[in-house]
Amino acid sequence: MSFITSLSVFSLHLLLLLVGFFLNPVISDPRGETVAQMCNNRTMTPQQRSLVVTNFLAAMDAVSPLLEAKGYGQVVNGTGNLTVYAYGECMKDLDKKDCDLCFAQIKAKVPRCLPFQQITRGGRVFSDGCYVRYDEYNFFNETLSSQDLTNCSDKEITGVNRTLFRDNAEELVKFMSVEAVRNGGFYAGIVDRHNVTAHGLAQCWEPLTRGGCAECLTNASEQIGSCLGKEEGRALNAGCYMRFSTQKFYNNSGNSTSDGSGGHNHLVVILTVTCSVVAFVLLVCAVCFLYTKKRAKKQRENKQLGSLLMLANKSNLCFSYENLEKATDYFSDKNKLGQGGSGSVFKGVLRNGKTIAVKRLFFNTKQWVDHFFNEVNLISQIDHKNLVKLLGCSITGPESLLVYEYIANKSLHDYLFERRDVPPLDWGKRFKILLGTAEGMAYLHEESNLRIIHRDIKLSNILLEHDFTPRIADFGLARMFPGDKTHISTAIAGTRGYMAPEYVVRGKLTEKADVYSFGVLMIEVITRKRNNAFSQDASSIIQTVWSLYGTSNLVQIVDPVLGDKFNKMEASRLLEIGLLCVQAAFEQRPAMSAVVKMMRGNMEIPTPTQPPFLNPESVLEVRKMMSPTDSPMEDQSQSSGWRIDNISESFFEPR
Ligand SMILES: *[C@@H]1O[C@H](CO)[C@@H](O)[C@H](O)[C@H]1NC(C)=O
Ligand SMILES: *[C@@H]1O[C@H](CO)[C@@H](O)[C@H](O)[C@H]1NC(C)=O
Ligand SMILES: *[C@@H]1O[C@H](CO)[C@@H](O)[C@H](O)[C@H]1NC(C)=O
Ligand SMILES: *[C@@H]1O[C@H](CO)[C@@H](O)[C@H](O)[C@H]1NC(C)=O
Ligand SMILES: *[C@@H]1O[C@H](CO)[C@@H](O)[C@H](O)[C@H]1NC(C)=O
Ligand SMILES: *[C@@H]1O[C@H](CO)[C@@H](O)[C@H](O)[C@H]1NC(C)=O
Ligand SMILES: *[C@@H]1O[C@H](CO)[C@@H](O)[C@H](O)[C@H]1NC(C)=O
Ligand SMILES: *[C@@H]1O[C@H](CO)[C@@H](O)[C@H](O)[C@H]1NC(C)=O
Ligand SMILES: *[C@@H]1O[C@H](CO)[C@@H](O)[C@H](O)[C@H]1NC(C)=O
Ligand SMILES: *[C@@H]1O[C@H](CO)[C@@H](O)[C@H](O)[C@H]1NC(C)=O
């Protein structure tokens, strides 16, 4: 009888523990959701910008492996006033895998501090699982700063006695600010009195001294006092993080007996006794459970990998990281072809002698490996004489790589503006390039059945072959991360002068935004002048062409280097088509297939309406209001709506 009783008590506990184990919401939660983002407002010049971005990316890349090894990482990259200091740390209760995931998540958010056009010299992102910061000075042991925040939940306490929870939380917060300092800078635990539990976690960043940690947490515990009475509160300081909550949000499974103070000791005793009885069985169960789980996971992974590999073998899309490393001579600088919004591009030669271009992506694709691979698979099927073919990718190495065919002759931008060693492009070549580009875009938009919006049509994305056949580079990248609105390519991409006004202002992205960019490109190629829509003087080349439209003098704007060796009818037709493409009203811009027809003379050219007039002051205003937290590249309607709509009127000031 007593045996049966103890057995049933025993099973009950076992059941409860296992249920707790299964229901425990913190199991494998990287807690990567952003809680707060702070960007400072020190900006730099466009000249410094690209250099700092390079250092920033190098520093961020270097933080990740450190974080993996030690749970935190501090990196300095660059020299002089271009130096970037970067820091990342995970909460000490996260395991390695969750730490990785968490950091990947918030790392993708920091570039939001790099708004388009301008760059701020510092920013931080707090999530509940990890922290990242970069700045222009050595902040590693900074304890408090003027940007520190207290974030209180707006939910009043429900379900438990408010007064009691408040008291418990208050005690917990005080306790944590002392205990964490004693405990090497970290504490996670509860205060549980009168059947009401407050959960909390406090952590100082690793570089802080003991004194710095105490100073930071003392301030945090006082700041967080304003949240008592709410369900949850957080103090987000330069040197530390503190949070309390009605819910358990941390993982202390490694230390389940330490999470307490106050009156739940009897519970601990019961648990300890029970545990000593069930320890053995539990151990066996846990081992069994973990083993099965692990095996199931492994099987799943194998299965996934298997189908990926099969797909890869079938399509020859997979390149090994090592081979690509060797092909590019370990990504040596002498093989670097350029740097785009989403990654640097290197020239490489495969063992079979084939020359390729390898793009090293800035953003982390580990979380989306199969999605990424599927996209590569789809996009690699796109084959058109005016598009740079994507040959495959590498997803197995430490970073993701895309492999493209190599186009020998550099970009249209180099041809028009950089190279002095080549004769200027004659009219015939310019026409051929523009027509081919239009055909490639028509294919992307209308014929490819993937409906790809390029998003970054510009001179440097048009590559030229020996016979001046244009090839559009870098399409489809934006498509690969539809749900991820923050990856670095969108944060930095979108080249000034080419962006359609509705895209800049409202984030409205359709094919017509590409058509706008094409119009700008067309006018640039014909006039060999850059369009500086955002420059201080408002006399953009588009405005100049528009003001000449309707006069008999439209072709006077054509690149003077051509002399009179060009077809005047054709030039004036193309300029008109260019104006059609850059009309302010995006519905009125023609589809790319229509552009092709008009260029070939197979379709009448309608009368263009006026292009957007970009008033430089309102543009500056828009930029200020969008930065730092609202990236204009971020689609869409739901974000940052009202502020931008309010000023869009003045943005398009009538002439
Ligand atoms: C506080 O955090 C929540 C997310 O947990 C966020 O939505 C809110 O904007 C934050 N408030 C402040 C003032 O940062
Ligand atoms: C920059 O921020 C500081 C406080 O963080 C503020 O005093 C200053 O006015 C800001 N400057 C600009 C140009 O917004
Ligand atoms: C910055 O990062 C680059 C690229 O990883 C590296 O080559 C360089 O040595 C770093 N510079 C410093 C000062 O650490
Ligand atoms: C950065 O340093 C360079 C040379 O050391 C100097 O020309 C430039 O003005 C500095 N820029 C700023 C913003 O301090
Ligand atoms: C912080 O670090 C800097 C540079 O490493 C050092 O000069 C300074 O004394 C440190 N401050 C504190 C409070 O530890
Ligand atoms: C909460 O607890 C306090 C102290 O035990 C008690 O006085 C109060 O009536 C309780 N309030 C509610 C709403 O239960
Ligand atoms: C805590 O709850 C138990 C049952 O749920 C009850 O027996 C006990 O009296 C409660 N203790 C306090 C201090 O409210
Ligand atoms: C905590 O730090 C903030 C920011 O520096 C400061 O405004 C506040 O006065 C500090 N509070 C205490 C109690 O030191
Ligand atoms: C929880 O913490 C324990 C001990 O620190 C660790 O072994 C375990 O992997 C952690 N689990 C998660 C999901 O973070
Ligand atoms: C577990 O708790 C004990 C007692 O509070 C503490 O000394 C120990 O450092 C804790 N261990 C971990 C891994 O947090």
From TrEMBL:
The keyword Repeat applies. GO terms for cellular component: membrane. It is found in: Membrane. It catalyses: L-seryl-[protein] + ATP = O-phospho-L-seryl-[protein] + ADP + H(+); L-threonyl-[protein] + ATP = O-phospho-L-threonyl-[protein] + ADP + H(+). Its main location: membrane. GO terms for molecular function: ATP binding; protein serine/threonine kinase activity. Residues 32-139, 145-249 form the Gnk2-homologous domain. It is a single-pass membrane protein. Residues 1-28 form the signal peptide. This is Cysteine-rich receptor-like protein kinase 3. CDD domains: Gnk2-like (cd23509), STKc_IRAK (cd14066). PANTHER family: CYSTEINE-RICH RECEPTOR-LIKE PROTEIN KINASE 3. Gene3D superfamilies: Gnk2 domain, C-X8-C-X2-C motif, Phosphorylase Kinase, domain 1, Transferase(Phosphotransferase) domain 1. Keywords: ATP-binding, Glycoprotein, Kinase, Membrane, Nucleotide-binding, Phosphoprotein, Receptor, Repeat, Serine/threonine-protein kinase, Signal, Transferase, Transmembrane, Transmembrane helix. ATP binds at residue 359. Residues 331-614 form the Protein kinase domain.
